[in-house]
């Protein structure tokens, strides 16, 4: 500006800070001015100070386990979550959160770098912050097939069922029959899974607290023609004479075919159920095992004609007309005749 015919400097900074903005300082110069920024700012368009983001512009501005937070004109390096600084000039170290018992009472706390984890203990389920009892008994085959499962808080218990005992591999049946007093002296002990039974031996039945013999022959267990013989605790079947078989079945023996000479040579053999009969041929009669000739002439002259003579022969007889008589057409037996002309 002109003063007393002389040019003097204009201090632009006196008016509106010379146009410098946002924490910029106006510095007057001979014939000009400039805007200066404070540390942590950069001059934009010669008049505007803009914050420098040191967290982006600087390489690793903070230390280990620290995080960079940009501030207006500066930056800070606080410890990361899960870390703390023991002293102002010390590095950030891990916080052991497990010391404050942040997990559920039934969970295990595991400290990690900058954090921690909560894991439910065995027998419990959930996320560790909350833990609830696990019902192990709801799982299939958690106990032996012969054991009962009882759920407990954080655990479970397998108890062998009645009649079974615990072994290393599970539960095994107790053989109660090894105890000689399990049943009465006259009973038979039968071991069952988890139990036992007392019953009378085969062929016996319970009667007035005692085992008595069962007469199986009352139920006719044998073949209709067989003889049943009851024995203590059992029975036997026997085919009668003239039959063969085991008693449960009996078959008639055909003695006429099975025996070489069942009858006398002059007899015919006839098989009958369980036996056979020998029938002598016509003209013979039975005399014990023998067949002897019948003298038909001893009975009424063999029924010959009154004018005939009965002549006995082996196995038969014949009628012969007396002298002076001749046979008629009656088969020549002389049963009837006519008188001949006698000269």
TrEMBL record:
List the molecular function annotations (GO) for this entry: calcium ion binding
UniProt-listed InterPro entries? EGF (IPR000742), EGF-like_Ca-bd_dom (IPR001881), EGF-type_Asp/Asn_hydroxyl_site (IPR000152), EGF_Ca-bd_CS (IPR018097), Growth_fac_rcpt_cys_sf (IPR009030), NOTCH1_EGF-like (IPR049883), vWF_C/EGF_Fibrillin (IPR052080)
The lineage's top-level taxon is Eukaryota
PROSITE patterns documented for this protein: ASX_HYDROXYL (PS00010), EGF_2 (PS01186), EGF_3 (PS50026), EGF_CA (PS01187), PROKAR_LIPOPROTEIN (PS51257)
Compartments annotated for it: namely: Secreted, Extracellular space, Extracellular matrix
Pfam families this protein is in? Answer: EGF_CA
The answer on whether this UniProt entry bears the keyword Secreted reads yes
* Any one Gene Ontology BP term: epithelial cell differentiation
Q: Which residues form the signal peptide?
A: none
Record domain EGF-like: where: 9-50, 51-89, 94-132, 133-172, 173-212, 213-251, 252-292, 293-331
What is the protein named? EGF-like domain-containing protein
């Amino acid at each position: 500006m002109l003063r007393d015919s002389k040019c003097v400097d204009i201090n632009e900074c006196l008016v509106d800070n010379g146009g410098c903005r946002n924490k910029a300082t106006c510095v007057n110069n001979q014939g000009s001015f400039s805007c200066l920024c404070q540390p942590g700012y950069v001059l934009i368009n010669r008049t505007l100070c803009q914050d420098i983001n040191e967290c982006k512009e600087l390489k690793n501005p903070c230390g280990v386990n620290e995080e960079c937070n940009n501030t207006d004109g500066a930056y800070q390096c606080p410890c990361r979550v899960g870390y703390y600084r023991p002293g102002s000039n010390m590095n950030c170290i891990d916080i052991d959160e497990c010391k404050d018992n942040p997990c559920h009472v039934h969970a295990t706390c595991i400290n990690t770098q900058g954090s921690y984890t909560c894991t439910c203990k065995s027998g419990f389920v959930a996320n560790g912050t909350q833990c609830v009892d696990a019902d192990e008994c709801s799982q299939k085959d958690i106990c032996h097939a012969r054991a009962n499962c009882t759920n407990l808080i954080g655990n479970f218990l397998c108890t062998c069922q009645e009649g079974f005992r615990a072994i290393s591999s599970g539960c095994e049946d107790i053989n109660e029959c090894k105890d000689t007093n399990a049943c009465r002296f006259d009973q038979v002990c039968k071991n069952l899974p988890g139990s036992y039974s007392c019953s009378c031996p085969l062929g016996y039945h319970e009667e007035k607290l005692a085992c008595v013999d069962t007469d199986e022959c009352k139920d006719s267990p044998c073949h209709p023609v067989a003889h049943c013989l009851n024995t203590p605790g059992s029975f036997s079947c026997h085919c009668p004479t003239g039959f063969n078989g085991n008693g449960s079945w009996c078959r008639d023996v055909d003695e006429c075919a099975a025996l070489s000479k069942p009858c006398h040579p002059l007899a015919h053999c006839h098989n009958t159920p369980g036996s056979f009969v020998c029938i002598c041929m016509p003209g013979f009669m039975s005399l014990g095992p023998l067949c002897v000739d019948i003298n038909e002439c001893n009975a009424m002259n063999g029924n010959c004609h009154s004018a005939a003579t009965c002549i006995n022969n082996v196995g038969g007889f014949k009628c012969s007309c007396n002298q002076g008589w001749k046979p008629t057409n009656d088969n020549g037996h002389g049963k009837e005749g006519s008188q001949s002309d006698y000269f």
